[in-house]
Amino acid sequence: MEFGPHFLLATLEGALTAAVLALTAVGLSVVFGIMRVVNVAHGEFFMLGAVIAWFVSTLVGVHPAIGFALALVAAPVAVGALAIVADRLVLRRLNYDPERTIVATIGLLYCIQQLTLMTFGPDARPVVPPFNQRIALPWFEFGEQGLQVIWPWGFGITTYKLAVIAFAVIILVGLWQFLARSRFGLVMRATQLDREMAQAFGIPIDRVYGLVFGLGAGLAALGAVLIVPIRQAHYLMGHEPLLLSFIVVIIGGLGSIPGTIIAAVLIGLSDGIISVFFSPTLAKIIATLLVAFVLVFRPQGLFGLRSA
Question: What pTM was estimated for this model as a whole?
Answer without folding.
Answer: 0.90
